[in-house]
Design the sequence.
């Protein structure tokens, strides 16, 4: 436990937000600092082979003499850009049932009495997503090395940058992950609580719709002005009637989310996200959007859909799912759909089925973020 706390706090202090607006890879240079720290720490371990890339990926191999079976454990080193994230100061508490007050704000905790809790000082996020996962992975590797455990598959630990902006696996080498192993499977440890295990993530697409209008002097606009703004506003109100947005969608319901808009007479544009656990529902969202655009936006418009990530379920066998359900039941966890995606969604699509298990982090992407240490340690046992 002390090792987990020491490691986690050391990693959390290295601020590593990814940058959604960058065109470089990785999206922020600060992520190299974390890669360096892990490289330095893992170099000290016997019988571990390391490979780092200039795209900020780090691979750590253990027990490579098993050339048949391979387990890939994936965690991400970047943290969210959604909340203040500089100068992170982790604080350690013992949960006594009361709210924890940080910087004048009280944080409601949901954890067993006596749990060890790590928070920030209340001015920044903590980065438990996914530094908790990284800490679990490193501790596991240290444990295997220390106890010289070899009657297991070969393991490739991969630490990815830019997961938070959906680019964690862009530069990943499946060859490096799997090697020549015949039986390879994956696992991600990423940002969940209450011992949640998931084999089911959203299918994710984005959309962008634009149309142009014709401006005139308002006094002589009769039958001459074509206001793209009013066409787009009609479309937006159709969306509100036809689709659920994220604020009214829960459990296994999908949504259509207008995230951004620009509304002017001359030019208007909306963009957003399509999410659903079911591929068919995504197709029906697209079909309906096309119909509504045809109805509201003539004489002309531009509609684009872009694939983001798939539901990992498509790639996970019934056998594998049953195995994870069993693990989950054994630890009193919850086997649940996850209303988001992980690096594991991409890895599964690329041929390495990779369910996700909890890392003990809660309230992620906010200054109220916290980690329940005992829950993280239980994930370590599962891994
Ligand atoms: Zn994460």
Sequence:
């Amino acid at each position: 436990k002390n090792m987990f706390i020491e490691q986690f706090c050391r990693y959390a202090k290295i601020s590593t937000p990814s940058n959604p607006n960058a065109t470089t890879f990785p999206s922020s240079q600060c992520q190299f600092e974390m890669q360096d720290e892990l490289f330095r720490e893992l170099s000290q371990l016997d019988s571990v082979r390391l490979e780092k890339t200039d795209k900020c990926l780090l691979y750590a191999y253990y027990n490579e003499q098993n050339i048949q079976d391979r387990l890939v454990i994936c965690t991400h080193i970047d943290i969210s850009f959604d909340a203040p994230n500089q100068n992170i100061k982790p604080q350690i508490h013992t949960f006594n049932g009361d709210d924890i007050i940080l910087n004048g704000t009280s944080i409601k905790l949901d954890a067993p009495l006596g749990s060890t809790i790590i928070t920030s000082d209340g001015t920044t996020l903590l980065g438990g997503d996914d530094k908790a996962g990284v800490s679990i992975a490193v501790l596991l590797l240290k444990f295997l090395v220390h106890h010289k455990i070899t009657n297991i598959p070969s393991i490739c630990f991969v630490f990815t940058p830019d997961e938070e902006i959906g680019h964690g696996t862009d530069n990943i080498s499946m060859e490096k992950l799997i090697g020549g192993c015949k039986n390879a499977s994956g696992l991600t440890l990423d940002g969940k609580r209450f011992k949640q295990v998931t084999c089911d993530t959203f299918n994710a697409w984005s959309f962008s719709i634009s149309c142009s209008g014709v401006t005139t002097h308002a006094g002589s606009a009769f039958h001459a002005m074509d206001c793209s703004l009013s066409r787009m506003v009609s479309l937006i109100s159709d969306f509100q009637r036809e689709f659920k947005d994220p604020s009214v969608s829960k459990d296994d319901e999908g949504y259509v989310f207008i995230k951004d808009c620009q509304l002017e007479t001359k030019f208007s544009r909306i963009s957003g996200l399509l999410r659903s656990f079911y591929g068919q529902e995504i197709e029906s969202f697209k079909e309906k959007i096309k119909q509504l655009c045809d109805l509201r936006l003539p004489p002309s418009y531009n509609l684009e859909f872009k694939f983001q990530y798939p539901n990992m379920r498509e790639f996970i066998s019934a056998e594998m799912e049953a195995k994870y359900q069993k693990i989950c039941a054994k630890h009193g966890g919850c086997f649940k759909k996850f209303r988001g995606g992980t690096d594991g969604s991409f890895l599964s699509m690329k041929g390495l089925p990779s369910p996700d298990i909890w890392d003990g982090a809660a309230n992620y992407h906010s200054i109220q973020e916290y980690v329940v240490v005992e829950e993280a340690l239980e994930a370590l046992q599962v891994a």
